[in-house]
Amino acid sequence: MKQRMDNTLRFWVDAAYEHIKREHGNLTKRQLVAQILRKYERRGDAMRCLNNQGKISWKATPQFLAMLADAERDAEDDLDDFP
Amino acid sequence: MSYLEGLPSYFWLVSSRLKKPVHDDVPYTTQALREDLLRLRNAWEDCQASRQRDAIYIYLTAVFDLVAWWTAENRAVERARKALRLRNMTPFDDEEPFAAIIRCTANPAKVDKRTRSKWSRALRYAISRKPIEDPLDKFIKRKGGINRCAERFRAHRQDIPSWLLSSE
Predict the structure, then answer these.
(1) What residue of A is the nearest CA neighbor of B62?
(2) Under an 8 A CB cutoff, do A12 and B11 touch?
(3) Cis ω for the linkage preceding B108 (within 30 of 0)
(4) Whole-prediction pTM
């Protein structure tokens, strides 16, 4: 079954998948995505919820969203400092 | 999302070595449950720190969303009991999941037994009647507020699934 997730989490899960897929050629994408979600959930970056169809789906946690916002602000500040 | 190159590698790396066996599904681990409870305690702190009149819905929505997906997996009672045990709390006889989760995530000095019971009845009314796409706060307000929803739960108890009826 394909994992349902919100766009933010999908972006980062896809990025993580692209990063590690070559090292795990013996595993399917579905298996790798499951491992990524498991790790994201364990460290508090991904959480499950019910979507508007009443199906269990995944989304980025408030903690993860806050961290992304901080990182984006830092990156913008760094760019401003760039001559 | 912009400036992705500026993000630290933390965001990109998951693990270079995966432990076997690898499955298609994602088991709900004890650590994941701990993280969910931590988020609820953070939601509690946020609503206590807020001056907004409706801030309690921040917390109640977080509680509702967690128990709702547990319920969809038919594991709400078992996981609520596990949550209590993780907090070194003893489950009460017939304590239903909303009351249990409120007990282990809200400050007991601010949420007494009566309030917990009222919130839990309102949430049980919502889970049995709320259209899935409706936000919890809008649904409860439309139905007259938390107190009124708690009353409605009692009034409609004959239509409500049995697992929601314990520990009123």
Answers:
(1) A49
(2) yes
(3) no
(4) 0.86
